[in-house]
């Protein structure tokens, strides 16, 4: 009987803790996410969607911008999973690399712009909690994570683009040989 009582108390305690965590999100992170989204969409409306699209088309033509500015803008402006739609601005052989860059940037963006990939927020907050317990600043972690992410997405984008172009060229040569 004692074990049943203990199980019942602790079982309900699990849901009480979950409810407390949920309420902390409702009074903390959720309003922040809504304000950040509102700001982003307002900024696009002020600049103009056509101007934003024109700037993105121009950046797609340059290797460095294609794998730094474009993934950053796509994640910040459209959030996950809509960020992948910026791939329409790149050439066909660059699409896999652009996708790789965007996917890679969805994690580092979370510390500074949690609305961009809210599903990743729990992972980031777990890491940030450990960093804060170790005596370090969460803001410093977010900035370092963001800057490191820019370097990583650029490197991944360039390498994936080279691999894709190599494989497409090889496949094209194979098709020519069989004809």
TrEMBL record:
Matching NCBIfam families? EII-GUT
What superkingdom does the record give?
Bacteria
Q: What is this protein identified as?
A: PTS system, glucitol/sorbitol-specific, IIC component
* Pfam families per the UniProt record, alphabetical: EII-GUT
Q: Does the keyword Transmembrane helix apply?
A: yes
Residues spanning the membrane: 22-44, 64-84, 142-159
Q: Which InterPro entries match?
A: PTS_IID_sorb
One GO biological process this protein is involved in is: phosphoenolpyruvate-dependent sugar phosphotransferase system
- Coiled-coil region(s): none
- Organism, by scientific name, is Enterococcus casseliflavus EC20
Q: GO cellular component annotations, sorted alphabetically?
A: membrane
Asked if the Swiss-Prot or TrEMBL record annotates the protein with the keyword Membrane, the reply is yes
Keywords from the UniProt entry: Membrane, Transmembrane, Transmembrane helix
């Amino acid at each position: 009987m004692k074990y049943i009582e203990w199980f019942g108390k602790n079982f309900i305690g699990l849901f009480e803790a979950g409810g407390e965590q949920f309420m902390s999100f409702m009074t903390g992170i959720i309003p922040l996410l809504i304000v950040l989204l509102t700001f982003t969409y307002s900024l696009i409306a002020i600049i103009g969607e056509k101007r934003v699209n024109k700037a993105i088309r121009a950046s797609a033509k340059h290797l460095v911008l294609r794998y730094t500015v474009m993934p950053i803008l796509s994640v910040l402006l459209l959030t996950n999973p809509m960020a992948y739609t910026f791939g329409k601005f790149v050439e066909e052989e660059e699409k896999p690399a652009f996708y790789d860059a965007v996917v890679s940037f969805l994690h580092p963006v979370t510390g500074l712009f949690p609305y961009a990939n809210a599903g990743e927020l729990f992972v980031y907050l777990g890491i940030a909690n450990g960093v804060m317990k170790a005596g370090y600043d969460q803001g410093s972690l977010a900035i370092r994570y963001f800057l490191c992410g820019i370097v990583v997405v650029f490197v991944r984008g360039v390498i994936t683009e080279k691999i894709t172009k190599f494989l497409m060229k090889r496949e094209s040569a194979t098709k020519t040989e069989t004809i």
